[in-house]
């Protein structure tokens, strides 16, 4: 009957106090709720995702440390105390290691590329907010190096090979592996089908290479050959989808700079 009276009205504060009285361990659940609220505040007020992640991690570590020490103080049995001390040190070292990993990953991008992951998530979210769901999915499937390649490519046209000045000597370079990755996500526009260009190159004794670092290949091409203009004019660039990702990247960086 008293319990019913104490719980009348379903006042959340009264329910919480009563739960702690009945089961003291519930106070840790209340602590988790407070932690979640603190995390939400940090994420809302934080000037960057890195700051928010580090701050939330610090809260978690503080909570766990407080719990361990509070439990240790309640143990009086000499048989259990050594085990508790070992557990305390194990948990303390584990969480200290976790803090080091998170901090180094946030500020130095290693051993876990946290900074790159956060930027990619923010970029995909921004693309999704503007209704570019295909671009958002493409961003999630790209490596960090491929995203950097998008910045390098920007809205310019890029040649794979070129003719030396006043010469019929054609010089062919390799295509960055990241460009192939971008092409797999349908983000590259070629001036002519890549397979067709590869056949022309092969017909003239050259080899189309992706990613490998090597000396440029050279071959003399007769100006009267139909391959001359095909080789001279071949180029690639970001297509509309790739350009939209490039602009989202610029916009995301500008927004981050504005918050600082």
Automatic annotation (TrEMBL):
<keyword id="KW-1133">Transmembrane helix</keyword>
<feature type="transmembrane region" description="Helical">
    <location>
        <begin position="50"/>
        <end position="73"/>
    </location>
</feature>
<feature type="transmembrane region" description="Helical">
    <location>
        <begin position="85"/>
        <end position="108"/>
    </location>
</feature>
<protein>
    <submittedName>
        <fullName>Uncharacterized protein</fullName>
    </submittedName>
</protein>
<keyword id="KW-0472">Membrane</keyword>
<keyword id="KW-0812">Transmembrane</keyword>
<feature type="transmembrane region" description="Helical">
    <location>
        <begin position="25"/>
        <end position="45"/>
    </location>
</feature>
